[in-house]
Amino acid sequence: GSEDGILVSLTGASDGKLTISPPLMGRNALTRNELSLLWSGQAYLVWRNYSNLPTRAYPGATGARVKKLQVLLRKAGAGNNTVNGHYDDATVKEVKDFQASRGLKQTGLTDPFTLICLYKAVNGTPIPALTKKKKAGGI
Q1: Is 137 exposed, middle or buried (0-12, 13-18, 19+ CB in 10 A)?
Q2: Using CA atoms, how far apart are residues 129 and 126, in angstroms rounded to an integer?
Q3: Alpha carbon distance, N-terminus to C-terminus of the chain
Q4: R_g of the chain, CA atoms, integer Å
Q5: Structural domain boundaries enclosing 99
Q6: pLDDT lower than 50: segments of the chain
Q7: Domain count along the chain
Q8: Of 128, 116, 127, 129, which Cα lies nearest the Cα of 76?
């Protein structure tokens, strides 16, 4: 690669190999060890913020997006405070409690990992993960 690095997508895992796209060095599958020798340590996780929740909300934020966040926190069982659209101390506590319940760093601030776990808790939306490819016919 160059000094700027290259980007590849990790698209699957099977039989001890990680599938990547586009191919690197003419190969579309590498072992974990081979990939670890090439990896910079930085990764991007592609996901969808279905309800357009605030991905970087801080105390003092207000509005409809904060209200949606408060509703989902309540549905996830993380609190029962007033849904008021204000990212107040009560909302910070609810976010911290939710983060603690999922083994996340307890900042009290929303971030993509917190939201991914919140969507899973409320809607059953799967957390992005590698899965084995299904054979033709879904078997």
Answers
A1: exposed
A2: 8
A3: 38
A4: 19
A5: 64-123
A6: 1-2, 138-139
A7: 2
A8: 116
Q: Find where tokens 């509703």 sit.
A: 71
Residue 106: which CATH number?
Answer: 1.10.101.10
| Secondary structure (3-state) at 77 | coil
52 in any annotated domain: no
Could you read off the pLDDT of 3-23 as tens digits, one per residue? 567 888 888 888 889 888 999
Residue 94: CA atoms inside 13 Å, Cβ hemisphere, count?
26
Q: Where are the alpha helices (DSSP H) in the chain?
A: 32-38, 64-75, 89-101, 112-123
- Residue 130, SS3? coil
**Rounded CA gap, 107 and 117, in Å?**
15
Residue 60 has a CB neighbour count (10 Å cut-off) of 9
Question: CB burial class (10 A; 0-12, 13-18, 19+) of residue 4?
Answer: exposed
Beta partners for residue 20, in sequence order: 10
